[in-house]
Amino acid sequence: MKNVIAALTEGFAEVEPGVTVSYDPTGSGAGITGATDKTLDIGLSSRALKDDEKNDVDGTTVALDGIAIIVNNASKVEDLTVDQLKQMFTGEITNWSEVGGDDGEIVLVGREAGSGTRDGFESIVDVKDSCKYAQELTATGAVISAVEANPLAIGYASLSAIGDTVKAVTVGGVECSEETVKDGSYVIQRPFVLVTKTGAKLSENAQKFFDFALSAEAAQYITSAGAVPVNG
After folding, report:
1. Alpha-carbon gap, residue 220 to 63, rounded angstroms
2. pLDDT for the residue numbered 117
3. What does the alpha-carbon distance between residue 154 and residue 143 come to, in Å, rounded to a whole number?
4. pLDDT level of residue 226 (50, 70, 90 thresholds)
5. Which runs of E-coded beta strand occur in 72-187?
6. What residues contact 130, with CB distance under 8 A and at least 6 apart?
7. Among 86, 149, 159, 171, which is least packed, fewest CB within 10 Å?
8. Beta-strand relationship, 135-137 and 107-111
9. What's the distance, Cα to Cα, between the start and end of the chain in Å?
10. What is the DSSP letter of 100?
11. Buried b (16+ CB within 10 A) or exposed e, 110-130
12. What pLDDT score was predicted for residue 54?
C-alpha cells in the first residue's frame, strides 16, 4: 500500500502540481479510524472493511495485491490447496511428503507481526495467530532469500516481488498472476482500499486525488508499484 500511494502521489503531482498530499503509513486500523473521525480526508486500508466499520465509512478498492506462496526451486511441489496451507502453517502437516514433496520437515517462513502481507495471508488462509513460524522476517526480500536458501522452506510474498530465485506454487490449481488476481480466481489476495466518511463531502483537493487514484491514467502508477489496478 505504501508503494502504491507513493506512486499515485508522484503521478498526481504531475497533473495537480499545486496540491500537496501527505501520507502517514500507520496501518489499516488507524486509516479507518482517521476517516471515521474526519482527522483524515481519505483513510487507507490494505484489507476489506469489516461489516461493523461500514456504518461509518465507505471503502473504494483502488488496487489488488496477490500474495504468492513460494517454495524452493528444488521442491517437487507444484500446487497446494488453501486447506493444505492451513494445515501446514498451523503445524498439523509437518512433512513435505504429506503434500507430494520429498521427505523432509517443512520450514515455515513468514513476516513479522504487524505486516500487511502477513495479515492478508493469515486472514485468507484462516490461520490468524496460530502459525508455527520457524522464521519471522521484517522484509519481503528476506522471506524470498530464506526460501531460496532452504529446500524445505515455504513462505509468502507479494506477487510483484517474486523473481526466478524461488518458485510460486499454484493454489487450488490457479497460478498467481495479474489476470487471476483481477478476475478473483486466485484466492490469496487482498484489496487496497480508499476509506471515506459516509455521507461527508470531500474537500475539492481530496476529491481530485480520489478521482485520479481511480482513473485509467493512474493504472500505470499502480502497476509500477507492483499492485494490480482495478481500472485501466
Report:
1. 11
2. 86
3. 9
4. confident
5. 79-80, 107-111, 135-137, 153-158, 167-168, 170-171
6. 89, 90
7. 149
8. parallel
9. 18
10. T
11. bbeeebbbbbbbbebbebeee
12. 95
**Residue 48: per-residue pLDDT:** 86
Long-range pairs of 227-230 with CB within 8 A, sequence gap ≥ 24 = 227/3, 227/4, 227/63, 227/64, 227/65, 227/160, 227/192, 228/63, 228/64, 228/65, 228/66, 228/159, 228/178, 228/181, 228/182, 229/62, 229/63, 230/61, 230/62, 230/63, 230/64, 230/182
- For the chain, where are the E strands, in sequence order? 43-45, 57-71, 79-80, 107-111, 135-137, 153-158, 167-168, 170-171, 189-197, 228-229
How do 153-158 and 43-45 pair as beta strands? unpaired
Contacts of 209 (CB under 8 A, 6+ apart): 8, 12, 16, 19, 21, 42
pTM of the model: 0.81
- Give the integer Cα–Cα distance in Å for 6 and 142: 22
pLDDT of 5-34, one tens digit each? 999 999 999 999 999 999 988 778 889 999
* pLDDT above 80 for 232: no
Beta carbons of 60 and 194 less than 8 angstroms apart? yes
C-alpha distances (whole Å) from 208 to each of 35, 42, 82, 213 are 17, 12, 40, 9
CA distance 138 to 9: 25
pLDDT in tens, 92-105: 999 999 999 999 99
The x, y and z cell numbers of residue 95, run together, are 512433512
Joined grid coordinates for residue 48: 476489506
